[in-house]
Design brief:
This protein is about 45% helix and about 15% strand. Its main location: membrane.
Length: about 700
């Protein structure tokens, strides 16, 4: 045993192809291998369960004060790969005694010991505090790939060891065959998870992923020496818990699906009819559910519900207090038919750092004032609408928010995340602005369904090739008819855009931020609304000034800061109202002679701020976020002065809290989210992302 006490670790060790059969030596090797397996298991779980939430809390708390910490966000993917690779290697090489048999077994044991942590990261919802399971997907993905690499090293080094010892026939032993099949499963999952395959054949990727996971768990237990009963128990416990959670948190529902345009549709699920009020609980706006098809065939239903639960995530566009669940969905091969039934699971609340829900039922004077005003304006519906408005406003008062302003950049069906958040923040008196990118002008019908929302907070950018500048007063009702979804808008006329008033800004080069490219087609079974936005590095900030304002010649970018009194007087039923089913059916079935609906749609179009082209985040958005846009003359003791002069005289006009309390939100595909994140981080604003990408 003296030879075992040589130098136990070196950066570039030389390994001898030896395989001693001495019982004491073998027992010692097994003990070392088992100990490092346990270190891998409990060390990785400790990092995920305790250190990861603590790290996120500290980064969020101190990054606004220490700009150097913000650079960590720019290299998040690199940090994940580097950390977990280093963690794995540090567990593989110590105490190998330059013996290839030690290293070979260590590769396999560490790989198997990290599997429970990998499965823990896939639990929905995440058991970690204030953590959305979607935020753990990058760690899950790259830790899984590291596990596969370790399994490949384990197999390769064992084959090399047997070859040098002239014992290559040992690879055909039954226990080793189990390992070969487990490696085959790892490789199958890895190859199907490559973006080029996953995006095109997402259903295959999903089913392949789940089936092989169960098989690998069993095969590793049969292959491992020493035994891996603890690992197998944890793996099966996690997988069984996921099935149990889907069983008790899923409910079968009927839906009402309404085609909005060739791109979007609206799905409505009534709570009262299906007892969803008590079952389906969500406290935060922007939460999402997961939906899967119900099959009458019991075997098919068992397979797709429990073994391979191919569930599609959809953001809830309504509030928890609404009478129904509203979903805004991009059309895909996943059929949403009124004649089918579906399982829904959830809800899954987003992880907002600036918005928290506190169950406080005490209504303050602000609620009573608004409710009294609503009561006077809704005498004909005193017993239902007024009570609903009061409930919504009372419910929203249970939120606590640290944000002063919120800028949301969304695209396509991502508007379903922004609308409920806008409703809540508006009631809380927080300034909001939405930049909404769509491809088809007919997608603007969505604002007819939520026509009572304050449209002055929304800017629309239409990127479709067939769309041209227009005077919306010249549009016909037929232009929004569902029977003509592909009708071009080549008859529309051009208008000139009015330039904006904007302040100066130093320290940020906005020429580095390109525009957001056109929307692409939706991928049928992708985990996210695959409507790609890609950066355009050649675009400059002047692109925004070349866009065409096609809604109104007299509006500008200013967003006046309202004090509490003004806000209270401006809150009406418009913010609290949710679209009714009759409204949906009426709008969807637009008839040429239905002039009333057509005129209402025209009115909405005129109130929106609509541009042709792609948005560029730049100086105007920056000024809005720090509240330095022009708001008109200001009255003081010296008379009337320009608002910009008042800003220049204020030595603290851009305080730290303006950056800490201003939030930028990116919703949608990775390209859109990443582009918005880079701009927000470089400007010094807080950032929140919402993406279903895998």
């Amino acid at each position: 045993m003296d030879e075992l006490h040589t130098d136990s670790f070196s950066l570039l060790p030389h390994y001898d192809y030896i395989y001693k059969t001495d019982p004491v030596y073998k027992k010692f090797r097994k003990l070392i291998t088992k100990n490092y397996g346990l270190a891998s298991l409990f060390g990785s779980l400790f990092i995920i369960i305790f250190l990861y939430p603590l790290w996120n809390h500290l980064i969020f708390k101190y990054s606004p004060k220490f700009k150097s910490l913000k650079k960590l966000f720019k290299y998040k993917l690199f940090n994940i790969i580097f950390f977990w690779s280093l963690f794995s290697l540090l567990l593989c090489f110590p105490q190998t005694y330059n013996d290839m048999s030690f290293l070979t077994k260590r590769f396999g044991r560490v790989s198997a010991s990290l599997l429970p942590t990998l499965l823990f990261l896939s639990i929905r919802p995440s058991p970690l505090p204030e953590t959305l399971y979607l935020a753990l997907l990058p760690i899950h993905k790259w830790l899984g790939r590291i596990i596969v690499l370790l399994a490949i090293f384990h197999t390769h080094t064992y084959c090399a060891l047997y070859f040098h010892l002239n014992k290559f026939n040992k690879i055909y032993k039954l226990e080793n065959l189990y390992g070969w099949f487990a490696l085959l499963g790892f490789l199958s999952i890895t190859l199907s998870s490559l973006p080029i395959i996953r995006r095109k054949y997402f259903k295959f990727f999903y089913i392949n992923h789940y089936i092989w996971t169960w098989i690998i768990v069993v095969l590793i237990n049969l292959h491992s020496r020493p035994s891996a009963n603890l690992l197998t128990f944890l793996n099966i416990a996690i997988l069984t818990y996921q099935i149990y959670h889907r069983l008790i948190h899923s409910i079968k529902v009927n839906i009402q699906s309404f085609n909005l345009s060739s791109n979007l549709k609206i799905v409505k699920i009534y709570k009262d009819d299906q007892n969803l009020s008590n079952f389906f609980q969500s406290n935060l706006p922007g939460s999402h559910l997961r939906m899967m098809r119900y099959y009458k065939n019991p075997f098919k239903n068992l397979f797709f519900r429990f073994i391979t639960p191919l569930a599609h995530p959809y953001t809830i566009a309504s509030l928890p207090t609404d009478n129904s669940i509203i979903l805004i969905i991009r059309n895909s091969k996943f059929e949403l038919n009124n004649n089918y039934q579906y399982y829904i699971t959830g809800s899954y609340d987003p992880d907002f750092h600036f918005l928290k829900y506190t169950d406080n039922n005490n209504n303050n004077k602000f609620i009573d004032k608004i409710s009294n005003k609503l009561s006077r304006s809704n005498q004909n519906n005193k017993n239902n609408k007024n009570q609903r408005y009061k409930n919504i406003i009372s419910f929203c008062e249970n939120y606590e928010s640290s944000a002063s302003r919120v800028l949301m950049v969304v695209g396509g069906s991502g508007i379903s995340f922004a609308l409920p958040l806008l409703r809540v923040l508006s009631i809380k008196g927080i300034e909001c602005k939405i930049i909404y990118v769509i491809k088809d002008v007919k997608d603007l019908r969505i604002f007819r369904f939520f026509n009572l929302i304050d449209l002055n907070s929304i800017e629309v950018y239409i990127t479709g090739k067939n769309f041209q500048e227009t005077d919306f007063s010249k549009l016909n009702i037929d232009d929004f008819d569902d029977d003509q979804p592909d009708k071009d808008f080549n008859h529309l006329e051009n208008q000139e855009q009015i330039s904006y008033l904007s302040g100066s800004l130093t320290g940020v080069d906005f020429n580095n931020y390109g525009s957001i490219n056109d929307l692409e087609t939706n991928n049928d079974y992708q985990e996210f609304d695959y409507t790609f936005f890609e950066p355009n590095t050649t675009a400059t900030a002047t692109t925004a000034n070349n866009n065409t304002n096609i809604a109104n010649k007299n509006w500008n970018l200013k967003s006046p800061r309202l004090n509490k009194e003004i806000h209270e007087n401006s809150i009406t039923s418009s913010i609290a109202e949710s679209p009714s089913s009759s409204m949906l059916r009426r709008i969807i079935s637009i008839d040429e002679q239905d002039s009333e609906v057509g005129m209402k749609m025209m009115d909405i179009m005129k109130r929106l701020k609509i541009y042709k082209g792609r948005p560029v985040l730049g100086e105007q958005e920056y000024n809005w976020c720090i509240e330095t846009t022009c708001t008109g003359p200001i009255f003081n003791s010296n008379g009337t002065i320009c608002c910009r002069e008042a800003i220049n005289n204020d030595e603290n006009n851009v305080k730290l809290n303006k950056f800490e309390n201003c939030w930028v939100i990116g919703v949608g595909p990775p390209g859109l989210v990443e582009k918005t994140k880079v701009w927000a981080r470089d400007c010094g604003f807080q950032f929140h992302e919402e993406s279903f990408s895998v």
